[in-house]
Batch of 2 targets.
Target 1
Amino acid sequence: MDEKESVTFINVIELPADEVDTFVEQWRERAKLMRDAPGFQDSRLHRAKLPDARFQLVNVAHWDSTEAWEAATANPAFRSAVRGVSDAVTPNPALYDVVVEYHQP
Amino acid sequence: MDEKESVTFINVIELPADEVDTFVEQWRERAKLMRDAPGFQDSRLHRAKLPDARFQLVNVAHWDSTEAWEAATANPAFRSAVRGVSDAVTPNPALYDVVVEYHQP
């Protein structure tokens, strides 16, 4: 990771195991909208290796600033895409700071 | 991030807001044990910017392999330290694969 200022967006997604494949495909398209927004740095959608993990999907993304992220989420095309998500999906989106960090030297 | 093979460990931690400061300090010490383990790559403890976020703390770490992570968590010193965590804390640890990734070019 470079030294650029950034804010971390994490979305812990709760959904039934049989909805994961469909959600991932929809997410891939929505994330393309975010990727093109000013201030986007990177995004990784993580899928649990085991089907019994409580949180099957976790998205971790980095943006230049809170303002950049807010502007991207306010994009009507993105908001429209989000409305198409199944009612069985409970997202838990929030912005985070890194408070402790260790790296292998 | 380099091209090295890795597995992602994510721990979504549920705890009362007034326990966060204490937990972070204990976590910092436990993570030092992990940092010295073979196969450790990096670890970041994220804290929610807002106190009403459902998940106040999320740890995202990378290891060379599932086996390296399992060996580190089996370390008696680490297991002893984990037993000291407050009963008010609910960890949700799991291993993940990256299924979609986008980067700013």
Target 2
Amino acid sequence: MGGTSLTAVAASEAGHVVAESRQKTKPQDGPDVVIEQIIEAARRVIDRTESSKKFQAICVGAPGATDLNSGMVYKAPNLGWENVPLGQKLEKALGLKAIVGNDVNVGTLGEFHFGAGQGARHMVGIFVGTGLGGGIIIDGKPYHGSRGAAAEIGHTILLPGGPACGCGQRGCVEALASRTAMERDIRTGIAGGRKSIVLEIMKRESRSRMTSSVIEKALKRKDALMQEVISRAQYYLGLLTAGLVNVLDPEVVVFGGGLIERLGEQFLGPIRPVAYQHFLRKDNAQSIRLVPAKLKNHAGPLGAVVLGRQVLGI
Amino acid sequence: MGGTSLTAVAASEAGHVVAESRQKTKPQDGPDVVIEQIIEAARRVIDRTESSKKFQAICVGAPGATDLNSGMVYKAPNLGWENVPLGQKLEKALGLKAIVGNDVNVGTLGEFHFGAGQGARHMVGIFVGTGLGGGIIIDGKPYHGSRGAAAEIGHTILLPGGPACGCGQRGCVEALASRTAMERDIRTGIAGGRKSIVLEIMKRESRSRMTSSVIEKALKRKDALMQEVISRAQYYLGLLTAGLVNVLDPEVVVFGGGLIERLGEQFLGPIRPVAYQHFLRKDNAQSIRLVPAKLKNHAGPLGAVVLGRQVLGI
């Protein structure tokens, strides 16, 4: 589940999707409504699966800080949640063991096991959307750090004194390269007298936010402000990537999230030369692959399945 | 061994130092002279050890990119070395297995096993001196990444377009917070008309570089430019620390290198609040210890012993 939508799949332990359900969520109506939506989605994919198949668990990736042991969602700003006992409620309603992880961490896990990171030993996942999150795989296993607080790559400061970030600091990469940051820059540009068709496209499509599809349309129409703003974001994503490669030296960095799903190479392409330029060890820099995620909206659900298998030891 | 000096110890497998030898090196005279110095230092500490003790290996930390398998030093800019077969030469001269690692990596390993990092599971080492280097311990083991190129924390860009770094980029933390960067800022300040006693102190002590002892004396005499320059370095070290904590979430960050050895808390103290302020998860931020290295110039030699034990499986 993300901030605005939900993908439920019924999957085998090996990651084969046998049923699927996708829908918008209603976070504005409160946690109970969203949890009811999750329960209904789970029931739907269970109903669509051959009755001979037995379900072992419901595994969820939630957009926030979660606790694997208790199934608690401590804080999910994009949902407006605080201390929601998601796992407990799902177990009660569905009679299945519930396993709750972080959305970006399970996305990384999905891409590592079934997607663009297959075969690597060390991997970094960078997910760009409303926010900017990441996941780290070390020695084939998700890396969570000493307090479960690792991989908060979105709050790496790349421009001291730069734009304000939701976390309270300034100049975090999330405040420089997320879709939210790009929308802010577009609106600032327009307010300052720059011409742009972005707001027009949003109005025509009744979008209150600058979604990936709006960005795609503006780029197709060669909107100069949009091109400038996305180049700036790509520059900072290149710096972020190089910093992570210089510290973690993974075999592969997988880029996911709404912008990559929609724009693919058009978004990732310009990030690569900036990153390569800032790698410290250039001798075999090309051996580090910077690639788009493969599984689209299945990365999260399939990663949640992997997490569930790890927790249950199956 | 560092860029200018060499500490040799005879140590037990458990890290007890039984003999020691310290001296300045002569990198300007070429690799063979320095290698002869290492061989003599090793012979000295062997001679000073009870003859009943048997030596199993000579373990070295070299200031540059090294290869654990071949004992080759690929590149050590502070020594002016390129492709020096250090391990091979030591084995031939001493009749002992030689194990060659990177100085900062073995320093991290030493502090982890016998110093300030004891008991941690995940640790980061930050060493500030002529350059700025680091080491990473994950799950109790040194982390080297996919190409052995991990932990290059000195080339994290913290100020895009900032001062030029030896690596060819701009705004790396090494170009903002190393002793070399501080000396550059002092000289620039003085050239621009600022008053400072730093050059005077260097002259009086016949130092061509602004060593840690020069910095200490200037601070003791409340040199305003020195205070400004060191504050700036501390600010960037705080940002670097926070970025590493947000990504790696270790239990402890150990600060070592000449400046910490000389100034201790006076240097580390002001780094802490900047780092804590930029931690994303502040709830249990104080549980992450930011501490000075304990072993002083023994961190490297004892870490090299640990590395040797790991390689030899003893």
